[in-house]
Design brief:
- The complex is a heterodimer of chains A (273) and B (282).
- With 273 residues, chain A is an all-alpha fold.
- Chain A has one domain: MetI-like fold (Orthogonal Bundle).
- Chain A is built from 14 helices and 2 strands.
- A two-stranded antiparallel sheet of chain A has the order 1-2.
- In chain A, a hairpin with an 8-residue loop joins strand 1 and strand 2.
- Chain B is an all-alpha fold.
- Chain B folds into 2 domains: 30 residues; 233 residues, MetI-like fold.
- Classes of the chains: A mainly alpha (273), B mainly alpha (282).
- The interface between A and B is large, with 94 and 95 residues.
Chain lengths: 273, 282
């Protein structure tokens, strides 16, 4: 029996070491003053973090990223809640179509999305390439699969159609039923998909780089520019970035009942690669 | 009964969604398709596809992408199978911890990941220098900024994904089945060969398609590690449509079509395979 237990433990320990080494190295590098040819750095400093927070480019890019994520995810909630509600309750025949539309971004890598968008929006009546607005639009599309799944599941759990029937029987108008009954009941159920979408967008690089580039420097773009300049500073950026992601996924895990639903992890296609 | 009548307000409420989906999903998609069939001088033409599949430079980028995706996915699946198996054999607490860390490191991708590997194994990397000092030639012939380096970094994000996707299947193989087969006289080998493997194979193949699509579309990692210096499909597309020097959006669109179709094909195969897994596991 004991022998049977040892093998899995060895595998898992090796896996954890393998997964954590790059992270640890980055962390150590960000607090190392000099690190040449020893296992651990020879001397330590928090100077890189100080330099980082003194750099207005960094703080600006961080705020920009938070702002654009907030804007895109907010837009997604505001637009998708009524849309999915109307389709589920009043236009069930269109649900198949909606399903296909929201799954397309899941199959299309960022590069492919960018190709069509650059062509469309570089010139002509809506020349928004190079501004943050093109990012808001494409980010809305990019998080559709996750937002749709979350909102749809939440609506299923609260039995939307029954609720609406009851509300209408009691004389509520459609708008009132939606605002007073559906929205407050659905919102708690979509917290997980909101946070997941937020953290996916927070680490997004491809679209930001190809569509906007240096004109609207997000945290990932800032990091990319710093890579070639100072390794220590770049690793401090990575650590800050990762802290934000950790806080987000910490909240995410707590909300989803600690892996009660592995589906969030499993359905998450590697996003930022 | 619910009044199913539609009124004008409901239609109006759908307009924002329609505008966004048309403007940022459907029109760009149509534009990629149309551009890819446009010749360099305009007009309908298959010229771009001919270039994509005959010019060595582009053909090589397709081949490189396919190879890197296939190899990194294979390694990912093999490691993932062992990890997924191990996950089902340990205590609840350990399992939660491993899953949490796998999940966490799946956020560690793209530029930060490439950077971490540069710190570790780049030309002045910690391991590179340390091993050199110790006289261990493990990484002496190794170059991070090359094919093998790219594989190494891709494998890092493939392994946790494979483990997370595979371990539910291992849970599907119930302990009672093993007991039942043992009672009927099957050896451990027979159990794995006749019962577990037929269930695992389609799941592994399905996971492979996801990993494959994941690697085909991965851009940031390769971009951060090698800039434009390594010939990958995603990198080529990026520089054809948004390059610094010159752009050829039509050819970029044709290559984007090739990439897009590969993704759709892998996800379609995945869907077919997973349907079978769900049926087997009831």
């Amino acid at each position: 029996m004991k022998k049977g237990r040892a093998f899995p433990r060895v595998i898992l320990t090796a896996t954890l070491i393998y997964l954590l080494i790059p992270l640890l190295a980055t962390l150590l590098y960000s607090v190392a003053k000099s690190w040449q040819n020893t296992i651990l750095p020879e001397s330590w400093t928090l100077g890189w973090f100080r330099d980082l927070f003194m750099d207005p480019r960094f703080t600006l890019s961080l705020w920009r990223t938070l702002w654009i994520c907030f804007l895109s995810v907010g837009l997604s909630v505001v637009v998708m809640l009524p849309t999915i509600f109307i389709v589920v309750v009043y236009l069930p025949r269109l649900e198949k179509l909606l399903n296909v539309l929201v799954l397309i971004p899941y199959a299309a890598p960022g590069v492919v999305m960018a190709v069509g968008l650059i062509k469309l929006y570089s010139s002509g009546p809506v020349a928004i390439a190079g501004t943050m607005w093109i990012l808001v639009g494409v980010y809305f599309v990019a998080v559709l699969p996750y937002m749709y799944q979350g909102i749809r599941n939440s609506m299923r759990t609260i039995r939307t159609i029954d609720l609406i029937e009851a509300a209408e029987l009691l004389g509520a108008s459609k708008l009132m039923a939606f605002r007073r009954i559906i929205v407050p009941n659905v919102l708690p159920g979509i917290r997980v998909s909101v946070l997941l979408s937020f953290s996916i967008l927070f680490g997004e690089f491809v679209l930001a780089n190809l569509l906007v580039g240096g004109q609207f420097e997000t945290i990932q773009i800032y990091l990319y520019h710093r890579l070639s300049e100072s390794g220590h500073l770049a690793s401090a950026v990575v650590i800050c970035y990762f802290l934000v992601i950790l806080i987000l996924s910490g909240i995410l895990l707590a909300l989803s009942g600690i892996l009660g639903r592995q589906s969030t992890a499993a359905s998450k296609k590697g996003s930022g690669q | 009964m619910l009044k199913k009548r539609m009124d004008i307000k409901l239609i109006l409420a759908l307009i924002p969604f329609c505008i966004l989906i048309i403007g940022f999903e459907l029109l760009p998609a149509v534009s990629v398709v149309m551009e890819s069939f446009t010749g360099n001088e305009g007009g309908f033409s298959l010229e771009q596809y001919v270039s994509a599949f005959t010019k060595m430079f582009y053909l090589q980028s397709i081949k490189n992408s396919l190879m890197i995706s296939a190899v990194s996915s294979c390694i990912g699946i093999i490691a993932g199978l062992f990890i997924a198996y191990a996950i089902t054999k340990v205590s609840e607490q350990t399992r939660t911890r491993v899953l949490m860390i796998s999940n966490m490191t799946s956020n560690f991708a793209g530029i930060p990941l490439a950077f971490a590997y540069i710190i570790l194994l780049g030309s002045n990397g910690i391991f590179t220098i340390l091993f050199e000092q110790w006289g261990l030639p493990i990484f002496s012939g190794f170059n991070l900024y090359s094919w093998s380096g790219l594989i190494l970094v891709y494998v890092y994000f493939q392994i946790p994904l494979a483990a997370l996707l595979l371990y539910p299947t291992f849970y599907g193989i119930r302990e009672e089945w093993r007991e039942a087969s043992a009672l009927l006289g099957a050896s451990t080998y027979h159990f794995w060969r006749r019962i577990a493997l037929p269930i695992l194979l389609p799941a592994a193949a399905g996971t492979f398609t996801i990993l494959f699509a994941n690697a085909m579309g991965a851009y940031a990692t390769a971009y951060a590690l090698l800039g434009g210096n390594y010939n990958l499909l995603v990198i080529r597309i990026g520089s054809l449509v948004a390059g610094d020097v010159f752009t050829r959006p039509q050819l970029g669109s044709a290559l984007a079509m090739v990439l897009g179709l590969t993704m759709v094909l892998s996800l379609w195969i995945n869907e077919r395979l997973m349907r079978r897994v769900r049926r087997d596991l009831g």
